[in-house]
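Query structure, 410 tokens:
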């Protein structure tokens, strides 16, 4: 367990107003953080303050409100750059989320470079958002999608990765942390091996960004993507990090305002990075909220958060392993803070419904990772995913609620 002298869990919980709610007259135990995290007061107030005091469209006005909103929006990009250790703010593109970020790279970087016979390499543990965009590009170009298998423990078969990586490979796209298994992949080894063949790598960091320190320069990732709502920020805002050289080589994704320097009916000259990928009025409040979320995480420390969540994971694993009829799906040696599980004779949707009656919010379903469900021959799993504000007492409540579910079905 995390040392309480170093980690003031009650102070952190007090910063999240929604945790005061009761569900069916029971204290809310929110364990659906892999789907979306809750918001601290600092984020809520940042968005509220923008709308109450400084809202206007950005980059298009000389009046005070526009200047204030522009400064807040631009400051958020600076905060993201620092958080992921990008070389410059030009490498940070705001998108609607990790999904749009992956689609942007697929269409603007990969598609123009691919031809029949080329290959894209992904893994068996990808979220649908890191499968479908590459399938679409393959259909458009004649390229072929190759998939690295996973072991029974939920780890990448790295010997197969090296066997599939070849001169035909033109892109590798891999999840940093699996949203369905919790597996932390050996991203550095993957990137190094790909780069030896001159193959660029996109890393889906949606599940890693709230749990692990991320340094894109040290990773040498060509592209790194994540969503704001996974790290205590608003929905509808996300980040595409890309190496400046690669982003400069890519055509714009969408056309419209703010992504141009000049427009005539004969010719359009595109704006510089990162604005050439940010057509139209951006999600100003989303960016400001994301900046506030990063400030909040930095105040506590991502390493401190990771240590607390690892303690939760170890404690929850030990508790759930003791429950007869429960099987954990995904037992990698390196895991982030989530546990997927199934119960003998109980559908995960029933588990989720009964747990909700106990005030426990978990996720039940295929988690937008149907190939993983097929790999383990299950229709779905129940998933408890942890965040900085979860407690060991909440793990006890989870375990008791699962036992109650088993008793009801027996």
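Result returned for the query:
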């Amino acid at each position: 367990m995390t040392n309480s002298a170093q980690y003031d869990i009650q102070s952190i919980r007090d910063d999240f107003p929604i945790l005061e709610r009761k569900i069916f007259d029971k204290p809310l135990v929110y364990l659906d953080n892999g789907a979306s995290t809750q918001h601290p007061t600092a984020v809520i107030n940042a968005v509220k303050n923008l709308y109450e005091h400084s809202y206007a469209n950005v980059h298009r006005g000389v009046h005070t409100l526009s200047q204030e909103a522009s400064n807040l929006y631009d400051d958020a990009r600076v905060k993201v750059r620092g958080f992921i250790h990008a070389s410059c703010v030009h490498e940070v593109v705001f998108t609607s989320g990790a999904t749009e970020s992956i689609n942007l790279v697929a269409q603007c970087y990969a598609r123009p470079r691919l031809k029949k016979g080329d290959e894209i390499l992904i893994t068996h543990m990808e979220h649908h958002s890191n499968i479908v965009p590459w399938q679409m590009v393959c259909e458009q170009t004649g390229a072929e999608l190759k998939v690295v298998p996973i072991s029974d423990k939920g780890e990448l078969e790295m010997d197969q990765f090296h066997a599939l990586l070849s001169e035909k490979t033109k892109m590798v796209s891999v999840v940093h942390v699996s949203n369905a298994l919790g597996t932390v992949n050996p991203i550095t080894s993957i990137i190094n091996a790909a780069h030896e063949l001159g193959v660029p790598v996109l890393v889906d960091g949606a599940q890693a960004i709230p749990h692990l320190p991320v340094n894109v320069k040290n990773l040498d990732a060509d592209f790194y993507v994540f969503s704001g709502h996974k790290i205590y920020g608003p929905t509808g805002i996300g980040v595409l990090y890309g190496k400046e050289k690669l982003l400069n080589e890519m055509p714009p994704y969408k056309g419209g305002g703010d992504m141009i320097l000049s427009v005539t009916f004969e010719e359009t000259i595109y704006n510089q990075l990162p604005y050439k990928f940010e057509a139209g009025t951006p999600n100003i409040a989303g960016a400001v909220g994301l900046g506030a979320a990063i400030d909040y995480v930095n105040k506590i420390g991502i390493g401190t958060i990771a240590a607390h969540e690892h303690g939760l994971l170890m404690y929850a694993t030990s508790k759930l392993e003791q429950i007869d009829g429960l099987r954990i799906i995904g037992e990698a040696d390196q895991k982030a803070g989530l546990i997927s599980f199934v119960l003998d004779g109980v559908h995960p949707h029933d588990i989720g419904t009964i747990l909700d009656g106990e005030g426990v919010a978990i996720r039940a379903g295929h988690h937008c990772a149907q190939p993983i469900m097929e790999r383990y021959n299950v229709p779905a799993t129940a998933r408890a995913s942890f965040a900085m504000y979860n407690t060991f007492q909440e793990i006890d409540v989870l375990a008791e609620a699962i036992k109650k579910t088993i008793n009801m079905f027996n």
